[in-house]
Amino acid sequence: MPHSVVVIGNFDGVHQGHQRLLQVARERAHTLAEGGRDLKVIAVTLWPHPMTVFAADRAPRLLTTLDDRLRLLRHYGADEVRVIQFNREVASWSPERFVDTMVRPLNPAVVIVGANFTFGKGARGTGETLRELSGGDFEVQNLGLVSVGGRKTSSSFIRRTLAAGDVATAAHHLGRTFRVTGVVMVGDQRGHTLGFPTANLAISAELATPGDGVYAGWLTPLDEPDAEPLEAAISVGTNPTFDGVERRVESYVVDRTDLHLYGRHIAVDFVEHLRGMARFHDIDELITQMHSDVKRTREVLDATRPTAGVTGAGIPADSWSAQRD
């Protein structure tokens, strides 16, 4: 007796398209439950990214950590998440072996995949291959790509918008603000001297971040239950005025100099790009610009209070059409 509805994908970012897969899976599970079957929604994902195994130097920077991916998949509708440890052996499996090893043991009534889903050695398997290999034991539902604002949603498109500093467009395709998390490090202590103390996060080489510049956003302590998001002016880059070499995310919580964040786990959500990174001639010029950045941050955030949720402000899609990247 089938006992699951399965969705399969890479799910980097768990964006609007991935959310659509999970939404449809929940709807199918509910419909089948009305027919007397109690079905779980199971998401199947790969880790690490396949390019990390075959061409690490060309692997994309990921939109989320594995922990965040699992948390988001559950938030958007998965009852369980199965992680396939991707390596060269798994990559060598035929489509038939993939189905027999990873799909059939879940005893699915329905398997839902996106339009560009591939699997098995050489990515030879497609949604149609999956349907053929099912042997009629389970249904295969293939969803088309989701469009937001007239553009197809994909993880690669979101990475490009982030690299360009367009965090607003990235948020529309993610369905929430883009977020980075980490433990606050002790930095150069320069912010305290200037009157703008910052919480500093190192930038992982494996993870995507917005392009260098200054942003309005929110800082939320994650180790404090029910913590309210705090308005923040956020700098991403190397701090060229002081000849910095290490890229960081530096967040100044607006009008707060009393916070003790060193060693704490925080989240930083990006709402709007304010300006590009610049080198200033002297400290006074920098401080004048920082005051301007803080003023603009207040103006932007006054209109965008975040809703409660797993990753900051929820932003609805402009249109549905469905998917996987």
Automatic annotation (TrEMBL):
Keywords: ATP-binding, FAD, Flavoprotein, FMN, Kinase, Multifunctional enzyme, Nucleotide-binding, Nucleotidyltransferase, Transferase. InterPro entries: FAD_synthase, Riboflavin_kinase, Riboflavin_kinase_bac, Riboflavin_kinase_bac/euk, Riboflavin_kinase_dom_sf, Rossmann-like_a/b/a_fold. This is Riboflavin biosynthesis protein. GO terms for biological process: FAD biosynthetic process; FMN biosynthetic process; riboflavin biosynthetic process. Catalyzes the phosphorylation of riboflavin to FMN followed by the adenylation of FMN to FAD. GO terms for molecular function: ATP binding; FMN adenylyltransferase activity; riboflavin kinase activity. Belongs to the ribF family. It holds the Pfam family FAD_syn. Pathway: Cofactor biosynthesis; FAD biosynthesis; FAD from FMN: step 1/1; Cofactor biosynthesis; FMN biosynthesis; FMN from riboflavin (ATP route): step 1/1. Residues 173-302 form the Riboflavin kinase domain. It catalyses: riboflavin + ATP = FMN + ADP + H(+); FMN + ATP + H(+) = FAD + diphosphate. Its EC number is 2.7.1.26, 2.7.7.2. The lineage of its organism: Bacteria, Bacillati, Actinomycetota, Actinomycetes, Propionibacteriales.
